[in-house]
Amino acid sequence: MHVVVLGAGLLGVTTAHYLAREGHQVTVIDRQKEPARETSFANAGLLTPGHAYAWASPRAPMILLRSLWRTDTALRWRLKLDPGMWAWGLKFLANCTAARNRENTVIKVRLCSYSLAETAAVTAETGITWDRSQSGALYLYRDPDHFRAGRANFKLLADEGVEARTLEREELATFEPSLAAVKDRFAGAIHTPHDESGDARKFTTALADSCRERGVTFKFGATITRIERSGDRVTAVESDRGRVQGDAYVLALGSYSPLLTKPLGFTMPIYPVKGYSVTLPIADREAAPAHFGVDEANLVAFARLGDRLRLTATADFAGYDTSFQPRDFVHMLNVARELFPRAAAFDRPEYWACLRPMTPDGPPIMGPSPLVNLWLNTGHGHIGWTMACGSSRIVVDRMLGRKPEIDDAPFRLSRY
User: Fold this and answer.
1) pLDDT score of 71 more than 70
2) Which residue, among 136, 128, 140, has the nearest Cα to 200 in the 3D structure?
3) Are strands 75-77 and 46-47 parallel, antiparallel or unpaired?
4) How many angstroms separate the CA atoms of 314 and 352, rounded?
5) Distance CA 365, CA 110 (A)
6) pTM value?
7) Which residue in 37, 44, 299, 321 has the most C-beta neighbors within 10 A?
8) pLDDT of res. 83
9) pLDDT tens for residues 298-345?
10) SS3 sequence, 246-269?
11) Strand pairing report for 46-47 and 25-29
12) How many whole angstroms separate alpha carbon 248 and alpha carbon 375?
Protein backbone atom coordinates (compact mmCIF):
# COMPACT_ATOMS: atom_id res chain seq x y z
CA MET A 1 0.00 0.00 0.00
CA HIS A 2 1.24 3.48 -0.87
CA VAL A 3 0.42 5.99 1.88
CA VAL A 4 0.82 9.74 1.44
CA VAL A 5 1.46 11.55 4.74
CA LEU A 6 0.72 15.26 4.84
CA GLY A 7 3.13 16.94 7.22
CA ALA A 8 6.71 16.26 8.37
CA GLY A 9 6.47 17.27 12.00
CA LEU A 10 6.40 14.88 14.94
CA LEU A 11 3.05 13.36 13.98
CA GLY A 12 3.81 12.99 10.28
CA VAL A 13 7.26 11.47 10.73
CA THR A 14 6.19 9.05 13.47
CA THR A 15 3.28 7.96 11.24
CA ALA A 16 5.75 7.35 8.41
CA HIS A 17 7.95 5.33 10.76
CA TYR A 18 5.20 2.94 11.80
CA LEU A 19 3.98 2.49 8.22
CA ALA A 20 7.47 1.91 6.81
CA ARG A 21 8.21 -0.58 9.56
CA GLU A 22 5.24 -2.59 8.27
CA GLY A 23 6.72 -2.57 4.76
CA HIS A 24 4.44 0.02 3.16
CA GLN A 25 5.48 2.59 0.59
CA VAL A 26 5.33 6.05 2.16
CA THR A 27 5.61 9.57 0.74
CA VAL A 28 5.73 12.53 3.14
CA ILE A 29 4.92 16.03 1.88
CA ASP A 30 5.80 19.26 3.70
CA ARG A 31 6.16 22.90 2.72
CA GLN A 32 9.30 23.41 4.81
CA LYS A 33 12.83 22.56 3.71
CA GLU A 34 13.32 19.82 6.33
CA PRO A 35 11.41 17.98 9.07
CA ALA A 36 10.22 19.65 12.28
CA ARG A 37 10.38 23.26 11.14
CA GLU A 38 7.09 24.43 12.65
CA THR A 39 5.38 23.33 15.90
CA SER A 40 7.95 20.58 16.51
CA PHE A 41 10.93 22.92 16.07
CA ALA A 42 11.44 24.44 19.53
CA ASN A 43 8.70 23.25 21.86
CA ALA A 44 8.95 22.84 25.64
CA GLY A 45 10.88 19.60 25.30
CA LEU A 46 8.71 17.84 27.88
CA LEU A 47 7.23 14.35 27.64
CA THR A 48 4.98 14.57 30.64
CA PRO A 49 1.99 12.40 31.47
CA GLY A 50 2.27 14.23 34.80
CA HIS A 51 1.08 17.42 33.11
CA ALA A 52 -1.76 16.00 31.01
CA TYR A 53 -4.53 18.10 32.51
CA ALA A 54 -7.10 19.37 30.03
CA TRP A 55 -6.97 23.15 29.58
CA ALA A 56 -10.76 23.46 29.58
CA SER A 57 -11.51 23.69 33.31
CA PRO A 58 -13.80 25.66 35.64
CA ARG A 59 -10.95 28.18 36.11
CA ALA A 60 -10.27 28.78 32.41
CA PRO A 61 -13.13 31.20 31.57
CA MET A 62 -12.02 33.70 34.24
CA ILE A 63 -8.39 33.46 33.10
CA LEU A 64 -9.46 34.20 29.53
CA LEU A 65 -11.64 37.08 30.69
CA ARG A 66 -8.76 38.65 32.65
CA SER A 67 -6.51 38.33 29.60
CA LEU A 68 -8.63 40.92 27.77
CA TRP A 69 -7.02 43.70 29.85
CA ARG A 70 -3.90 42.01 31.26
CA THR A 71 -0.79 40.67 29.52
CA ASP A 72 0.61 38.50 32.33
CA THR A 73 -1.95 35.68 32.11
CA ALA A 74 -1.00 32.20 30.90
CA LEU A 75 -3.89 32.20 28.41
CA ARG A 76 -4.40 35.25 26.20
CA TRP A 77 -7.65 35.78 24.31
CA ARG A 78 -7.62 38.49 21.67
CA LEU A 79 -10.97 39.79 20.55
CA LYS A 80 -11.25 39.63 16.77
CA LEU A 81 -13.83 39.06 14.06
CA ASP A 82 -12.96 35.41 13.52
CA PRO A 83 -16.01 33.10 13.32
CA GLY A 84 -13.76 30.07 13.67
CA MET A 85 -12.34 31.33 16.94
CA TRP A 86 -15.79 32.08 18.38
CA ALA A 87 -17.20 28.71 17.31
CA TRP A 88 -14.20 26.98 18.88
CA GLY A 89 -14.53 29.12 22.00
CA LEU A 90 -18.13 28.08 22.58
CA LYS A 91 -17.13 24.42 22.41
CA PHE A 92 -14.24 25.15 24.78
CA LEU A 93 -16.57 26.77 27.31
CA ALA A 94 -18.89 23.76 27.13
CA ASN A 95 -15.96 21.63 28.32
CA CYS A 96 -15.11 23.91 31.25
CA THR A 97 -17.10 21.90 33.80
CA ALA A 98 -15.47 19.83 36.51
CA ALA A 99 -16.94 16.63 35.09
CA ARG A 100 -15.79 17.29 31.52
CA ASN A 101 -12.36 18.39 32.73
CA ARG A 102 -11.93 15.15 34.64
CA GLU A 103 -13.08 13.02 31.70
CA ASN A 104 -10.86 14.79 29.19
CA THR A 105 -7.84 14.68 31.50
CA VAL A 106 -8.22 10.92 31.98
CA ILE A 107 -8.41 10.43 28.20
CA LYS A 108 -5.26 12.49 27.70
CA VAL A 109 -3.19 10.91 30.45
CA ARG A 110 -3.93 7.39 29.18
CA LEU A 111 -2.68 8.36 25.74
CA CYS A 112 0.35 10.14 27.21
CA SER A 113 1.42 7.15 29.30
CA TYR A 114 0.97 4.79 26.35
CA SER A 115 2.88 7.15 24.10
CA LEU A 116 5.80 7.51 26.50
CA ALA A 117 6.32 3.75 26.33
CA GLU A 118 6.08 3.86 22.52
CA THR A 119 8.67 6.65 22.39
CA ALA A 120 11.06 4.50 24.39
CA ALA A 121 10.43 1.55 22.06
CA VAL A 122 11.05 3.64 18.93
CA THR A 123 14.24 5.04 20.45
CA ALA A 124 15.52 1.57 21.33
CA GLU A 125 14.60 0.16 17.92
CA THR A 126 16.22 2.91 15.86
CA GLY A 127 19.08 3.94 18.15
CA ILE A 128 18.36 7.65 17.63
CA THR A 129 19.50 10.24 20.16
CA TRP A 130 17.63 13.40 21.15
CA ASP A 131 19.13 14.91 24.35
CA ARG A 132 16.89 12.63 26.35
CA SER A 133 16.60 13.10 30.10
CA GLN A 134 14.83 10.62 32.37
CA SER A 135 15.35 12.50 35.62
CA GLY A 136 11.63 13.17 36.09
CA ALA A 137 9.72 16.45 36.16
CA LEU A 138 9.39 18.95 38.99
CA TYR A 139 6.16 20.91 39.33
CA LEU A 140 7.00 23.86 41.56
CA TYR A 141 4.46 25.60 43.82
CA ARG A 142 5.09 28.98 45.42
CA ASP A 143 1.90 29.26 47.50
CA PRO A 144 0.92 26.76 50.23
CA ASP A 145 -2.72 26.76 49.15
CA HIS A 146 -1.71 26.18 45.52
CA PHE A 147 0.58 23.36 46.67
CA ARG A 148 -2.25 21.69 48.57
CA ALA A 149 -4.55 22.05 45.57
CA GLY A 150 -1.87 20.63 43.28
CA ARG A 151 -1.48 17.55 45.45
CA ALA A 152 -5.24 17.08 45.59
CA ASN A 153 -5.62 17.48 41.84
CA PHE A 154 -2.80 15.04 41.18
CA LYS A 155 -4.86 12.20 42.60
CA LEU A 156 -6.69 12.08 39.26
CA LEU A 157 -3.44 11.30 37.43
CA ALA A 158 -2.26 8.97 40.21
CA ASP A 159 -5.45 6.93 39.80
CA GLU A 160 -4.36 6.41 36.18
CA GLY A 161 -0.94 5.11 37.20
CA VAL A 162 1.17 8.29 37.10
CA GLU A 163 3.69 7.96 39.91
CA ALA A 164 4.57 11.03 41.97
CA ARG A 165 5.93 12.15 45.31
CA THR A 166 5.76 15.47 47.09
CA LEU A 167 8.81 17.43 48.17
CA GLU A 168 8.66 19.95 50.97
CA ARG A 169 10.80 23.07 50.75
CA GLU A 170 13.95 21.64 52.34
CA GLU A 171 13.64 18.41 50.37
CA LEU A 172 13.32 20.40 47.16
CA ALA A 173 16.56 22.28 47.85
CA THR A 174 18.42 19.01 48.36
CA PHE A 175 16.78 17.26 45.41
CA GLU A 176 17.42 20.11 42.94
CA PRO A 177 20.50 22.02 44.15
CA SER A 178 20.12 24.72 41.50
CA LEU A 179 17.05 25.92 43.43
CA ALA A 180 18.69 25.95 46.87
CA ALA A 181 19.31 29.69 46.81
CA VAL A 182 15.64 30.43 46.11
CA LYS A 183 14.05 27.61 48.13
CA ASP A 184 12.21 30.05 50.40
CA ARG A 185 10.12 31.20 47.44
CA PHE A 186 8.50 27.79 47.17
CA ALA A 187 6.07 25.92 49.36
CA GLY A 188 7.07 22.62 47.80
CA ALA A 189 7.01 20.55 44.63
CA ILE A 190 5.63 17.41 43.04
CA HIS A 191 8.17 15.12 41.38
CA THR A 192 7.01 12.68 38.68
CA PRO A 193 9.96 10.30 38.23
CA HIS A 194 8.83 8.75 34.95
CA ASP A 195 8.28 11.98 33.02
CA GLU A 196 10.99 12.72 30.47
CA SER A 197 12.39 15.58 28.43
CA GLY A 198 14.27 15.89 25.17
CA ASP A 199 14.64 17.78 21.92
CA ALA A 200 11.61 17.11 19.73
CA ARG A 201 13.33 18.49 16.65
CA LYS A 202 16.36 16.21 17.08
CA PHE A 203 14.04 13.25 17.58
CA THR A 204 12.03 14.08 14.45
CA THR A 205 14.98 14.72 12.16
CA ALA A 206 16.79 11.59 13.35
CA LEU A 207 13.65 9.49 12.90
CA ALA A 208 13.18 10.96 9.41
CA ASP A 209 16.70 9.77 8.56
CA SER A 210 15.75 6.33 9.83
CA CYS A 211 12.61 6.45 7.68
CA ARG A 212 14.68 7.26 4.60
CA GLU A 213 16.76 4.16 5.27
CA ARG A 214 13.50 2.19 5.16
CA GLY A 215 12.63 3.72 1.80
CA VAL A 216 10.36 6.60 2.79
CA THR A 217 10.29 9.47 0.27
CA PHE A 218 10.21 13.04 1.58
CA LYS A 219 9.01 15.87 -0.68
CA PHE A 220 10.08 19.11 0.99
CA GLY A 221 9.35 22.64 -0.15
CA ALA A 222 5.95 21.54 -1.45
CA THR A 223 3.00 23.59 -0.24
CA ILE A 224 -0.18 21.52 -0.31
CA THR A 225 -2.94 23.49 -2.04
CA ARG A 226 -5.78 20.99 -2.24
CA ILE A 227 -6.87 17.47 -1.39
CA GLU A 228 -8.65 16.07 -4.43
CA ARG A 229 -11.63 13.78 -3.93
CA SER A 230 -13.99 11.70 -5.99
CA GLY A 231 -17.07 10.40 -4.21
CA ASP A 232 -16.07 9.13 -0.78
CA ARG A 233 -12.37 8.78 -1.58
CA VAL A 234 -9.30 10.98 -1.84
CA THR A 235 -7.71 10.62 -5.27
CA ALA A 236 -4.66 12.87 -4.99
CA VAL A 237 -2.92 15.66 -3.13
CA GLU A 238 -2.09 18.74 -5.12
CA SER A 239 0.83 21.01 -4.23
CA ASP A 240 2.71 23.84 -5.88
CA ARG A 241 5.28 21.24 -6.90
CA GLY A 242 2.93 18.73 -8.46
CA ARG A 243 0.34 16.10 -7.75
CA VAL A 244 0.88 13.01 -5.58
CA GLN A 245 -1.36 9.95 -5.63
CA GLY A 246 -1.56 7.11 -3.16
CA ASP A 247 -3.84 4.38 -1.87
CA ALA A 248 -4.37 6.06 1.50
CA TYR A 249 -3.62 9.46 3.04
CA VAL A 250 -2.84 10.68 6.56
CA LEU A 251 -3.48 14.31 7.49
CA ALA A 252 -0.90 15.46 10.07
CA LEU A 253 -0.68 19.20 9.42
CA GLY A 254 -1.46 20.44 12.91
CA SER A 255 -3.22 23.80 12.99
CA TYR A 256 -3.46 23.87 9.20
CA SER A 257 -5.40 20.61 8.94
CA PRO A 258 -8.90 22.20 9.10
CA LEU A 259 -8.05 24.51 6.19
CA LEU A 260 -7.74 21.47 3.92
CA THR A 261 -10.72 19.48 5.19
CA LYS A 262 -13.30 22.25 4.92
CA PRO A 263 -13.36 22.08 1.07
CA LEU A 264 -13.84 18.31 1.43
CA GLY A 265 -17.15 18.86 3.19
CA PHE A 266 -16.25 18.34 6.83
CA THR A 267 -14.80 20.53 9.55
CA MET A 268 -12.54 19.86 12.50
CA PRO A 269 -12.73 22.00 15.66
CA ILE A 270 -9.03 22.80 15.80
CA TYR A 271 -7.82 26.31 16.49
CA PRO A 272 -4.22 27.57 16.48
CA VAL A 273 -2.90 28.76 19.84
CA LYS A 274 0.47 30.47 19.65
CA GLY A 275 3.16 29.34 22.06
CA TYR A 276 6.48 31.04 22.72
CA SER A 277 9.88 29.58 23.57
CA VAL A 278 13.38 30.87 24.11
CA THR A 279 16.54 28.77 24.04
CA LEU A 280 19.70 29.83 25.89
CA PRO A 281 23.21 28.37 25.91
CA ILE A 282 24.20 26.82 29.23
CA ALA A 283 26.83 29.07 30.84
CA ASP A 284 27.44 27.17 34.10
CA ARG A 285 26.68 23.46 34.20
CA GLU A 286 26.74 23.33 37.98
CA ALA A 287 24.15 26.10 38.21
CA ALA A 288 21.86 24.61 35.55
CA PRO A 289 18.89 22.49 36.65
CA ALA A 290 19.36 18.74 36.75
CA HIS A 291 15.61 18.27 36.39
CA PHE A 292 13.04 19.81 34.09
CA GLY A 293 9.60 21.04 34.99
CA VAL A 294 7.13 23.87 35.41
CA ASP A 295 6.90 26.89 37.71
CA GLU A 296 3.16 26.47 38.30
CA ALA A 297 2.57 30.00 39.57
CA ASN A 298 3.98 31.52 36.38
CA LEU A 299 3.28 28.56 34.06
CA VAL A 300 6.83 28.76 32.74
CA ALA A 301 8.32 25.43 31.69
CA PHE A 302 12.07 24.79 31.73
CA ALA A 303 14.14 21.94 30.35
CA ARG A 304 17.86 21.38 29.96
CA LEU A 305 18.47 20.00 26.46
CA GLY A 306 22.12 19.01 26.36
CA ASP A 307 24.08 22.28 26.49
CA ARG A 308 20.96 24.47 26.15
CA LEU A 309 18.19 25.66 28.44
CA ARG A 310 14.71 25.79 26.88
CA LEU A 311 11.98 28.00 28.36
CA THR A 312 8.35 28.11 27.26
CA ALA A 313 5.26 30.01 28.34
CA THR A 314 1.99 31.58 27.25
CA ALA A 315 -0.91 30.40 25.11
CA ASP A 316 -1.96 33.19 22.78
CA PHE A 317 -5.22 32.98 20.84
CA ALA A 318 -3.94 35.08 17.94
CA GLY A 319 -5.12 33.17 14.88
CA TYR A 320 -2.50 32.09 12.36
CA ASP A 321 -0.06 34.83 13.33
CA THR A 322 3.40 33.44 14.17
CA SER A 323 5.17 36.79 14.58
CA PHE A 324 6.85 37.75 17.85
CA GLN A 325 8.68 40.58 19.57
CA PRO A 326 11.43 40.41 22.23
CA ARG A 327 8.90 41.70 24.77
CA ASP A 328 6.91 38.48 24.37
CA PHE A 329 9.72 36.62 26.15
CA VAL A 330 10.39 39.04 29.02
CA HIS A 331 8.21 37.17 31.53
CA MET A 332 9.77 33.75 31.01
CA LEU A 333 13.29 35.20 30.97
CA ASN A 334 12.63 37.03 34.24
CA VAL A 335 11.45 33.78 35.83
CA ALA A 336 14.56 31.95 34.56
CA ARG A 337 16.87 34.68 35.89
CA GLU A 338 15.17 34.37 39.27
CA LEU A 339 15.42 30.58 39.42
CA PHE A 340 18.73 29.93 37.63
CA PRO A 341 20.63 33.25 37.56
CA ARG A 342 24.05 31.77 36.67
CA ALA A 343 22.89 28.87 34.56
CA ALA A 344 22.50 30.40 31.10
CA ALA A 345 23.89 33.04 28.76
CA PHE A 346 20.91 35.38 28.95
CA ASP A 347 22.51 37.74 26.44
CA ARG A 348 22.27 35.11 23.66
CA PRO A 349 18.59 34.15 23.41
CA GLU A 350 17.09 32.31 20.44
CA TYR A 351 13.41 33.20 20.16
CA TRP A 352 10.66 31.07 18.62
CA ALA A 353 6.90 31.06 18.28
CA CYS A 354 4.69 28.32 16.87
CA LEU A 355 1.05 27.34 16.53
CA ARG A 356 -0.31 24.61 18.77
CA PRO A 357 -3.31 22.83 17.21
CA MET A 358 -5.83 22.86 20.05
CA THR A 359 -9.12 21.00 20.23
CA PRO A 360 -11.80 22.49 22.51
CA ASP A 361 -11.92 19.46 24.80
CA GLY A 362 -8.20 18.62 24.85
CA PRO A 363 -7.71 15.14 23.31
CA PRO A 364 -6.41 15.07 19.73
CA ILE A 365 -8.36 14.00 16.63
CA MET A 366 -7.14 10.65 15.33
CA GLY A 367 -8.46 7.84 13.21
CA PRO A 368 -10.88 7.65 10.27
CA SER A 369 -12.39 10.64 8.50
CA PRO A 370 -15.63 10.84 6.52
CA LEU A 371 -13.58 9.80 3.46
CA VAL A 372 -12.74 6.12 3.45
CA ASN A 373 -9.03 6.45 2.63
CA LEU A 374 -8.22 9.65 4.54
CA TRP A 375 -6.96 9.26 8.09
CA LEU A 376 -6.51 11.96 10.72
CA ASN A 377 -3.63 12.49 13.15
CA THR A 378 -3.84 16.07 14.34
CA GLY A 379 -4.98 18.46 17.08
CA HIS A 380 -2.46 17.44 19.75
CA GLY A 381 -2.23 20.86 21.36
CA HIS A 382 0.52 21.71 23.83
CA ILE A 383 1.73 18.16 24.52
CA GLY A 384 2.04 16.76 21.03
CA TRP A 385 5.61 15.69 21.82
CA THR A 386 4.32 13.51 24.64
CA MET A 387 1.50 12.05 22.52
CA ALA A 388 3.25 11.65 19.15
CA CYS A 389 4.47 8.06 19.05
CA GLY A 390 1.40 6.63 20.75
CA SER A 391 -0.95 8.55 18.49
CA SER A 392 0.76 7.44 15.31
CA ARG A 393 0.88 3.83 16.48
CA ILE A 394 -2.89 3.97 17.14
CA VAL A 395 -3.66 5.50 13.73
CA VAL A 396 -1.51 2.98 11.86
CA ASP A 397 -2.99 0.07 13.79
CA ARG A 398 -6.47 1.22 12.76
CA MET A 399 -5.39 1.74 9.15
CA LEU A 400 -4.11 -1.82 9.00
CA GLY A 401 -7.22 -3.32 10.59
CA ARG A 402 -5.76 -3.97 14.04
CA LYS A 403 -7.31 -3.05 17.35
CA PRO A 404 -5.13 -0.46 19.14
CA GLU A 405 -3.71 -1.29 22.55
CA ILE A 406 -5.75 1.49 24.17
CA ASP A 407 -9.31 2.57 23.47
CA ASP A 408 -9.21 5.01 20.54
CA ALA A 409 -12.92 5.91 20.48
CA PRO A 410 -12.41 9.15 22.52
CA PHE A 411 -10.06 10.49 19.82
CA ARG A 412 -12.29 10.12 16.78
CA LEU A 413 -13.72 13.07 14.89
CA SER A 414 -17.18 11.58 15.33
CA ARG A 415 -17.18 12.67 19.02
CA TYR A 416 -18.09 16.13 17.79
Assistant:
1) no
2) 128
3) unpaired
4) 12
5) 15
6) 0.96
7) 44
8) 86
9) 999 999 999 999 999 988 888 899 999 999 999 999 999 999 999 999
10) CCEEEECCHHHHHHHHHHHCCCCC
11) unpaired
12) 8
